[in-house]
Amino acid sequence: MLKEWFYDICHNEKYSIQRKELFEWIKNAENSGIKEFKKCAATFRHWSKEILNAFKYGLTNGVTEGFNNKIKVLKRISYGIKNFERFRTLILHS
């Protein structure tokens, strides 16, 4: 129920409802008795300002995280590239 409720909060169009429901969800998750949800609720309470900004403005750092992941993968597979300029070129060409 908590998972589906959070899904509904994320997909709601009205920010005012998202804001109200998020804090209700956090209270319910804290009182759920489920260790994982309690930990999740603590994290959401700590980052509530940022989460609400993501709801309000629709911005995420997903694209940046994707680029960072791609660079990490290139770094792992290009073992012995000692020349930074070559590695930089490899990044720019991918």
Total tally of structural domains: 2
Characterize the biggest β-sheet.
none
Fraction of helical residues: over 70%
What is the overall silhouette?
Answer: elongated
User: Which structural class do you get from the secondary structure elements?
Assistant: mainly alpha
> Mean pLDDT, nearest integer?
92
Helix and strand string, N-terminal first?
Answer: HHHHHH
Q: Give a count of the beta strands, DSSP E runs of length 2 or more.
A: 0
Over the alpha carbons, how many angstroms does the gyration radius reach? 20 Å
Determine the strand fraction and express it as a percent band.
under 5%
> What is the count of helical runs?
6
Spatial gap, N to C terminus: 42 Å
Low-confidence stretches: none
Describe it.
There is one protein chain. By secondary structure, the protein is mainly α. The chain has two domains: 2-57, no CATH class; 62-93, no CATH class. 79% of the residues lie in helices and 0% in strands. It has six helices and no strands. It has helices spanning 2-11, 15-30, 35-46, 48-57, 62-77, 84-93. Helix 1 runs antiparallel to helix 2 and helix 2 (15-30) runs antiparallel to helix 4. The longest helix has 16 residues, at 15-30. The model has no long low-confidence stretch (mean pLDDT 92).
